[in-house]
Amino acid sequence: METLIGIDLGGTKIAAAAVQDGKIIAKVVVPTPKDGAENVFAAMIEAAKEVLKTAPASRVGVGVPGPLDFKKGEIKFAPNINGIVNAPVVAKLQAGLGLHIELENDANAAGLAEHTYGAGQGASSSYFITISTGIGGGIIINNRVWRGANGIAGEIGHVIALPGGVIAGSGVSGALEAVASGTAMARDASYAYARPIDTRELFHLAQEGDFRAVKIVDQAARYIGCAIADLQKNLDPEVFVLGGGVSDVGEFFLGKIRAVAEAEAKGFAVPVIQKAVLGSDAGVIGAALAARE
Fold first, then answer.
1. Rounded distance, CA 114 to CA 153, Å?
2. Which of 28, 211, 245, 271 is the most buried (most CB within 10 A)?
3. What is the pTM of this model?
4. Residue 253's pLDDT is what?
5. Distance CA 214, CA 188 (A)
6. Segments in the chain below pLDDT 70
7. Does the domain formed by 4-109+281-292 have CATH 3.30.420.40?
8. DSSP 11-39
9. Which residues are CB-contacts of 134 (< 8 A; sequence separation ≥ 6)?
């Protein structure tokens, strides 16, 4: 059974794991350095080396955020990590580990994991959407990641949901993640209640029936549900898999999204929407799968 190494680069933590047939057999998690690309890459290398001590492997997949240049093996920019601009992640990791490195977008990697071993099992096409600090996506067609002509396919968080609206981290005005992500909901709630409120408290208030909280949650669900309906009519995947911290609220939020998506896609198809099941391990498992792909 082949052992593959996956590295998942996040804004707050780096995970490296050895994976066999979708199962993690060794894992190391370290904080993401805040002082530039060189230290970030060094932390990724050291985490992978620790895993390799107990689980030798010859191929490494790395899932990273931001638009990527797959030909150059570079991260064009990572909005939530300081100093990551045109960063040669593949060259740095190959030099540090002496192994073959396969680059993949982090949402694509998580989507591949959910498609292969999670909520998308059995389908040949799926669309993974992560709803957390931001909103990301990954498209799987014929059981393979579809990156598109420029490597940006699946960037659902940056499509325009509200023209002329709030600016997203990418600089896109009215982008979906600027109006419907966990960050957006917490921002709107903090304004509505005139005090800091995070998404955990917001959803608690909404589930208790507080009208301001319900309105904010319903608005986010509408934006996401409309986006899913549009994607159903455009790409027509067999299943949408929703992951990320916000999806952990469960059916209270997913049910609202599902109702909007079904209404907006009426007459075309009923979008099948499932909750992701691999949790925070999806990224690192998918990165390992990318090494195999």
1. 17
2. 271
3. 0.92
4. 96
5. 12
6. 165-172
7. yes
8. SSEEEEEEEETTEEEEEEEEEPPSS-HHH
9. 79, 80, 157, 168, 169, 177, 181, 183
